[in-house]
Protein backbone atom coordinates (compact mmCIF):
# COMPACT_ATOMS: atom_id res chain seq x y z
CA UNK A 1 0.00 0.00 0.00
CA UNK A 2 1.34 3.38 -0.98
CA UNK A 3 1.55 6.59 0.95
CA UNK A 4 0.01 9.93 0.13
CA UNK A 5 2.49 12.80 -0.09
CA UNK A 6 1.15 16.28 0.66
CA UNK A 7 2.88 19.41 -0.54
CA UNK A 8 2.52 22.94 0.80
CA UNK A 9 4.22 24.78 -2.07
CA UNK A 10 5.74 28.16 -1.35
CA UNK A 11 7.86 30.64 -3.25
CA UNK A 12 10.80 30.17 -0.85
CA UNK A 13 10.16 26.93 1.05
CA UNK A 14 7.96 23.93 0.43
CA UNK A 15 6.57 21.80 3.22
CA UNK A 16 5.93 18.07 2.94
CA UNK A 17 3.76 15.66 4.90
CA UNK A 18 3.01 11.99 4.40
CA UNK A 19 0.59 9.33 5.51
CA UNK A 20 1.50 6.01 7.02
CA UNK A 21 1.10 3.09 4.57
CA UNK A 22 -2.45 2.43 5.84
CA UNK A 23 -3.38 6.07 5.22
CA UNK A 24 -4.60 6.61 8.77
CA UNK A 25 -2.18 9.22 10.11
CA UNK A 26 -0.89 12.40 8.47
CA UNK A 27 2.58 13.33 9.71
CA UNK A 28 4.85 16.26 8.96
CA UNK A 29 7.80 15.09 6.90
CA UNK A 30 10.23 17.91 6.09
CA UNK A 31 10.74 21.18 4.28
CA UNK A 32 12.94 21.99 1.34
CA UNK A 33 13.93 25.15 -0.41
CA UNK A 34 11.52 25.50 -3.32
CA UNK A 35 14.29 25.47 -5.90
CA UNK A 36 15.09 21.86 -4.87
CA UNK A 37 11.53 20.74 -4.01
CA UNK A 38 11.15 18.65 -7.18
CA UNK A 39 14.38 16.81 -6.42
CA UNK A 40 13.12 16.21 -2.88
CA UNK A 41 9.98 14.61 -4.33
CA UNK A 42 12.00 12.52 -6.79
CA UNK A 43 14.25 11.25 -4.00
CA UNK A 44 11.27 10.45 -1.78
CA UNK A 45 9.35 8.63 -4.52
CA UNK A 46 12.49 6.61 -5.32
CA UNK A 47 12.57 5.18 -1.79
CA UNK A 48 8.86 5.10 -0.85
CA UNK A 49 5.72 3.94 -2.67
CA UNK A 50 3.64 7.08 -3.26
CA UNK A 51 0.17 6.54 -4.65
CA UNK A 52 -1.09 10.14 -4.67
CA UNK A 53 0.08 13.73 -4.36
CA UNK A 54 -2.07 16.23 -2.48
CA UNK A 55 -1.18 19.85 -3.07
CA UNK A 56 -2.46 22.83 -1.13
CA UNK A 57 -4.04 25.29 -3.55
CA UNK A 58 -3.74 28.91 -2.45
CA UNK A 59 -7.00 30.79 -2.86
CA UNK A 60 -8.11 34.06 -1.32
CA UNK A 61 -10.95 34.56 1.13
CA UNK A 62 -13.13 35.38 -1.87
CA UNK A 63 -12.32 32.00 -3.44
CA UNK A 64 -10.31 33.58 -6.26
CA UNK A 65 -6.73 32.84 -7.20
CA UNK A 66 -3.88 34.56 -5.36
CA UNK A 67 -0.37 35.49 -6.45
CA UNK A 68 0.80 32.03 -5.34
CA UNK A 69 -1.84 30.04 -7.23
CA UNK A 70 -0.09 30.19 -10.59
CA UNK A 71 3.34 29.01 -9.30
CA UNK A 72 1.62 26.21 -7.37
CA UNK A 73 -0.23 25.04 -10.48
CA UNK A 74 3.01 25.23 -12.46
CA UNK A 75 4.73 22.98 -9.89
CA UNK A 76 1.77 20.59 -10.09
CA UNK A 77 2.16 20.37 -13.88
CA UNK A 78 5.83 19.47 -13.41
CA UNK A 79 4.81 16.76 -10.94
CA UNK A 80 2.33 15.34 -13.47
CA UNK A 81 5.04 15.37 -16.15
CA UNK A 82 7.63 13.68 -13.91
CA UNK A 83 5.20 11.20 -12.32
CA UNK A 84 2.42 10.54 -14.84
CA UNK A 85 1.25 7.40 -13.01
CA UNK A 86 0.70 9.19 -9.67
CA UNK A 87 -2.61 11.09 -9.46
CA UNK A 88 -2.69 14.58 -8.04
CA UNK A 89 -5.40 16.30 -6.00
CA UNK A 90 -5.65 19.97 -5.01
CA UNK A 91 -6.96 20.90 -1.56
CA UNK A 92 -7.97 24.43 -0.52
CA UNK A 93 -5.22 25.61 1.80
CA UNK A 94 -6.91 28.68 3.26
CA UNK A 95 -6.01 29.24 6.91
CA UNK A 96 -3.54 26.34 7.10
CA UNK A 97 -0.66 28.59 8.20
CA UNK A 98 -2.78 30.07 10.99
CA UNK A 99 -3.93 26.60 12.00
CA UNK A 100 -0.31 25.40 12.01
CA UNK A 101 0.73 28.28 14.27
CA UNK A 102 -2.18 27.56 16.63
CA UNK A 103 -1.29 23.87 16.79
CA UNK A 104 2.32 24.68 17.62
CA UNK A 105 1.17 26.89 20.49
CA UNK A 106 -1.31 24.27 21.69
CA UNK A 107 1.41 21.63 21.52
CA UNK A 108 3.68 23.70 23.76
CA UNK A 109 6.31 24.48 21.14
CA UNK A 110 8.75 27.14 22.33
CA UNK A 111 8.48 30.58 20.78
CA UNK A 112 11.92 30.37 19.13
CA UNK A 113 10.93 27.07 17.47
CA UNK A 114 7.63 28.56 16.28
CA UNK A 115 9.60 31.28 14.51
CA UNK A 116 11.32 28.70 12.32
CA UNK A 117 9.32 29.11 9.11
CA UNK A 118 10.01 25.55 8.00
CA UNK A 119 8.05 24.26 10.98
CA UNK A 120 4.97 26.16 9.84
CA UNK A 121 5.38 24.83 6.29
CA UNK A 122 5.60 21.16 7.19
CA UNK A 123 2.78 21.40 9.75
CA UNK A 124 0.67 23.20 7.14
CA UNK A 125 1.34 20.30 4.76
CA UNK A 126 0.14 17.88 7.46
CA UNK A 127 -3.05 19.93 7.91
CA UNK A 128 -3.63 19.88 4.14
CA UNK A 129 -3.12 16.11 4.14
CA UNK A 130 -5.41 15.57 7.11
CA UNK A 131 -8.08 17.63 5.34
CA UNK A 132 -7.78 15.33 2.32
CA UNK A 133 -7.99 12.23 4.53
CA UNK A 134 -11.04 13.59 6.34
CA UNK A 135 -12.82 14.18 3.01
CA UNK A 136 -11.88 10.88 1.37
CA UNK A 137 -11.47 8.14 3.98
Automatic annotation (TrEMBL):
Gene Ontology cellular-component terms listed: cytosol
E.C. number(s) listed in UniProt: 3.1.-.-
One example GO MF annotation: nuclease activity
Predominant cellular place of this UniProt entry's protein: cytoplasm
Pfam families: RuvX (PF03652)
Gene3D superfamilies: YqgF/RNase H-like domain (3.30.420.140)
Entry's localization field: Cytoplasm
Enzyme class: hydrolase
Keyword list, A-Z: Cytoplasm, Hydrolase, Nuclease, Ribosome biogenesis
Keyword Membrane (UniProt): no
CDD domains xrefs: YqgF
Domain named YqgF/RNase H-like: residues: 2-100
Protein family per UniProt: Belongs to the YqgF HJR family.
PANTHER family noted in UniProt: POLYNUCLEOTIDYL TRANSFERASE, RIBONUCLEASE H-LIKE SUPERFAMILY PROTEIN
Role this protein plays: Could be a nuclease involved in processing of the 5'-end of pre-16S rRNA.
HAMAP family reported in the protein's UniProt record: Nuclease_YqgF
Name recorded for this polypeptide: Putative pre-16S rRNA nuclease
High-level lineage: Bacteria, Pseudomonadati, Bacteroidota, Cytophagia, Cytophagales
Amino acid sequence: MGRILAIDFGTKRTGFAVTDPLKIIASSLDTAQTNVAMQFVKDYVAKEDVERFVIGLPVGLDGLETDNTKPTKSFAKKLEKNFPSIPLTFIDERFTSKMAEASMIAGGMKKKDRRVKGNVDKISAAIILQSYLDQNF
